[in-house]
Amino acid sequence: MSENDMLVKALTKDQNFRVFALNATETIKQSQKNHQMTSTTTAALGRTLIASLLLANSALKGKESMTVRLNGQGPVGGMIVDADAHGHVKGYVQHANVSLPKTVDDKIDVAGAVGKDGFLEVLKNQGGAQPYTSNVPLVNGKIGDDFAYYLAKSEQIPSAIGVGVDFNKDNQVKVAGGYLIQTMPGAADDAIEKLEIKLKKLPSISTMLGENPNPEYILDVLFGKDKLDIVEHLPVSFECNCSKEKFAKSIASIGEKDLQQIIDEDHGAEVVCNFCGKQYNFSEDDLVKIMDEKEK
């Protein structure tokens, strides 16, 4: 994890807005490496990872976590992201090798890759027997607008969210990050109007993080240092909690007939984690042991 991978939480001194700014460059680099993604799929999944981190750390606390599912029926297919209240995130995209031509203004065509004929679904694991689930149709597949629409419709919080992933000439991640601004109850109308004007003129995420990798700089550009109270600095990282034991439980859930067939025909199994790409090998003896446990 880079020392620059940081989420900063702040509150405007006039109590009108709650603000989050994030540099997730190393986190998105790790994701690109794990899945050997193209710049197109890295931009799509990267934006979703960033937005999920911002959303999770605005809505969760303690041991709570959330799963974000997004599928616009575009060529990249579905994306799944897990995030928690401690700056940890992991995710994967269904088709990691998709590569689309750039748009007419020389931008990565995230909307074309994601599609917009689909949904954004959020499942919050907050300690109950069942996760709280809500979903909205996609606005345009650009990710930022889709998450803003989710916040407005499902959370009833007027919000502005910006997410960005920029690349160097070798199609490797150069900078990645974003911001989330949430309107507080009773926020002044003139303050909201001023912010809307400011956001239309705001430099891109990549420009701001390129000038200064400290996410506090994004907050400064948005509101100015003297207008904010910093609440927290939270380190951010790509973190997967997969293990051989967890996959053994998954294998144990396979029907006895199918598991016996794997033992008889393949004499073992290799399982690959969708989130981090780590491989786990189960020998024939491992599988027989799992079968024996099932039969007890």
Secondary structure topology:
Elements: E1 6-12, E2 17-23, H1 25-35, H2 39-59, E3 65-71, E4 79-84, E5 88-93, H3 110-114, E6 119-125, E7 132-137, H4 144-154, E8 159-167, E9 173-183, H5 189-200, H6 205-211, H7 216-223, E10 228-235, E11 237-238, H8 244-252, H9 256-266, E12 268-272, E13 279-283, H10 284-295
Parallel strand pairs: 5-11
Antiparallel strand pairs: 1-2, 1-10, 2-9, 3-4, 3-6, 4-5, 6-7, 8-9, 12-13
Give helix and strand order, one letter per element, not per position.
EEHHEEEHEEHEEHHHEEHHEEH
Number of domains: 2
Describe the oligomeric state of these chains in a short phrase: single chain
Shape: globular
CATH class of the largest domain: Alpha Beta
Give the termini separation.
44 Å
How is this structure best described in words?
The chain has 296 residues and is an alpha+beta fold. The protein has two domains: 6-238, 3-Layer(bab) Sandwich (Hsp33 domain), CATH 3.55.30; 244-295, CBS domain Like. It is built from ten helices and 13 strands. The protein has helices at residues 25-35, 39-59, 110-114, 144-154, 189-200, 205-211, 216-223, 244-252, 256-266, 284-295, and strands at 6-12, 17-23, 65-71, 79-84, 88-93, 119-125, 132-137, 159-167, 173-183, 228-235, 237-238, 268-272, 279-283. It has a six-stranded mixed β-sheet, covered by helices on one side. Strand 12 and strand 13 (279-283) form a beta hairpin. It is globular.
